[in-house]
Amino acid sequence: MSRFTALRKGKCPKCETGKVFITNGNILKLKGPIMHENCPHCNYKFEREPGYFYGAMFMSYGITMAEALVTFIIIQIFNLNLSVDGTMGVIVAVILILIFPNYKFSRILWMYIFTRKEGNEPTTK
């Protein structure tokens, strides 16, 4: 499996087999995604240190702002003639719909940036 495919499917960044999240969460029930502490396959600890996912919060913010901008551009391209309140309502609705996927993707991407795949350790002579 390619690294990109494993990232997209939410697999462990170390072994690319175990799932990172136990549940996807449900916005209607107001229950967020639940993350494993360790990989169920290779026992890799996901949160390396306290505050490890602090940077993922900034990634999530960037992703959310990009989605808001794309939503605004789509509204303008299709000339929906919405008021400012209507435009903001649509943007907020898109943000709320994508809140849990953004949360999951930003955490997984953060781990993939800072974790080497198993078997890719540098060799020393």
Helix content: 40-55%
Average pLDDT, to the nearest integer? Answer: 89
Number of strands: 2
Number of helices, where a helix is a run of at least 4 consecutive DSSP H or I residues: 4
Gyration radius over CA: 18 Å
Largest sheet strand order: 1-2
Low-pLDDT windows of residues: none
**Beta-strand share of residues:** under 5%
Structural overview:
The chain is elongated. It has helices at residues 3-9, 54-77, 84-97, 99-114, and strands at residues 21-23, 34-35. Helix content is 49%, strand content 4%. The protein has a two-stranded antiparallel ribbon. The chain contains four helices and two strands, in the order αββααα. It is mainly α. The chain has one domain (3-114). α2 crosses α3 (84-97). The two termini are 29 Å apart.
Compact overview of the structure:
By secondary structure, the chain is mostly helical.
Features:
125 residues, mainly alpha, two-stranded antiparallel ribbon, transmembrane helix, membrane, transmembrane
